[in-house]
Structure formats: structure tokens, C-alpha cells
Design goal:
The chain is an alpha+beta fold. The protein has a four-stranded antiparallel β-sheet with strand order 1-2-7-4, with no helix packed on it. Strands 3-6-5 form a three-stranded antiparallel β-sheet, with no helix packed on it. Helix 1 runs antiparallel to helix 2, helix 1 packs parallel to helix 3 and helix 2 runs antiparallel to helix 3. It is rod-shaped.
């Protein structure tokens, strides 16, 4: 007797850069047969894919083979995964570094800009309210920089990995959610940090006498 049928492998899209494909074949009913003449297993894999099996199979190129005189187990489990390109981790590391530098460097730039602009306003006898527009512009620029850094990381995930094999799971979803919240919060944070720095510096450097002398002249 020979049986042949098609089966769809289940996919697991979390926890790895590429999708895990798993297929199970139940062998247990063969124990009820009157006799079992042995089992020969041959698995043909896509080129260069990684694979693991619940039975001890020998790999030869892109083929897994095994021969067993008796029923070796109640089931045969196979897991296969598309290979991850070597440049993937490098691009991911670069993306994370750029994101971290943008995330933590942004507040430093905002504070320095607020201090410089506040000092300029104070020396001219003007209030720190003029810094609101600067904070808004810098907040927008910070948001754009964060979005660009996030896009760099996503490019490494979606463009470098084989088409249709990207493991988009909870980890990527959480990263997108956190990144989106940070991008939206960058605008009010930019206004707040710049305004506070400008207000404090403006109070320390405020010179109303200089304004009155300039006007009198």
C-alpha cells in the first residue's frame, strides 16, 4: 500500500528573524499493524535552509535521510527555517545604535539649544516665550530623526530577509508601538525641554538696562 497526500506546515512567526515551519507526521497507528518492515525517511529542504528533526536524520546537502529497522517513535517532527543573511545582524546593530544615539542625544541637543537661545534672549532683554517656536521646530526634527532611525531598523528586517519569511511577531509589534509612542512624545518633549532651559537661562542673563540704554540712544 502506498499513500500520498499534501499537508500544510504550520508557521511560527515569533522569536526569530525568519519564520519557523513545522510539520508533524504521526507514526503511532503503525504499531497496530500485523507487521512493520522498517522505515526510510527522506526530507528535501529548500536550498540552504536550516532544519531539525525529532528523529536522528543525516544531512547530505539539502536532504535529510534516515533508515530505521523498526518503528522509531510515535511521531516524526520536522522544523525548517530560512537562513538569515550574514549582513542582517550587522544592519540591526547599526540600526539599534543609531536609534539609541537619536533617543538619548535628542534631549541633550534640545537642552543646549534652549540654553543658548535663552542666553541670547536674556542679553537682549526679551522673555523666554520666544523659545516656544524653537522648541516646536526642534521637537519636529527630533521626531523625524527617530522615525528615520526606526525605518533603518525595519529596513534591515523586511528588506534583507528572504521575501515571505520575515518573522513579524510580538517583539516587532511591541517595538513599533514603543517607537510610535516615543515619536509622538518627542514633539511636546522638545517644546518642554527647550522652553525650560531657555526660561532658566533667560532669567540668569536678563539685562533690562541694556535695552533701555539702546532705546534712549
Amino acid at each position: 500500500m502506498r499513500a500520498r497526500y499534501e499537508a500544510v506546515a504550520s508557521s511560527h512567526r515569533t522569536g526569530a528573524p525568519t519564520v519557523y515551519w513545522q510539520l508533524g507526521y504521526v507514526l503511532a497507528p503503525a504499531r497496530e499493524w500485523g507487521g512493520f518492515g522498517g522505515l526510510a525517511v527522506t526530507v528535501h529542504l529548500p536550498p540552504n535552509w536550516d532544519a531539525a528533526a525529532s528523529l536522528p536524520l543525516t544531512r547530505d546537502g539539502d536532504t535529510l535521510k534516515g533508515s530505521f529497522p523498526n518503528l522509531p517513535a510515535d511521531a516524526l517532527g520536522l522544523t525548517a527555517q530560512a537562513p538569515v543573511p550574514p549582513e542582517y545582524e550587522h544592519l540591526q546593530a547599526m540600526g539599534r545604535n543609531v536609534w539609541s544615539a537619536t533617543l538619548w542625544g535628542g534631549p541633550a541637543v534640545l537642552l543646549l539649544a534652549g540654553v543658548a537661545f535663552g542666553a541670547w534672549l536674556g542679553r537682549r532683554g526679551r522673555t523666554s516665550a520666544w523659545a516656544l517656536l524653537l522648541g516646536l521646530v526642534l521637537g519636529l526634527l527630533w521626531t523625524a530623526a527617530l522615525m528615520g532611525a526606526g525605518h533603518r531598523m525595519l529596513t534591515a528586517h523586511f528588506a534583507v530577509l528572504p521575501p515571505g519569511q520575515q518573522a513579524v511577531g510580538s517583539g516587532v509589534g511591541i517595538a513599533l508601538l514603543v517607537g510610535g509612542v516615543l515619536c509622538l512624545g518627542a514633539i511636546p518633549a522638545g517644546v518642554l525641554l527647550t522652553q525650560v532651559a531657555a526660561w532658566l537661562t533667560c532669567r540668569l542673563t536678563f539685562r533690562p538696562g541694556l535695552v533701555s540704554v539702546e532705546r534712549a540712544g
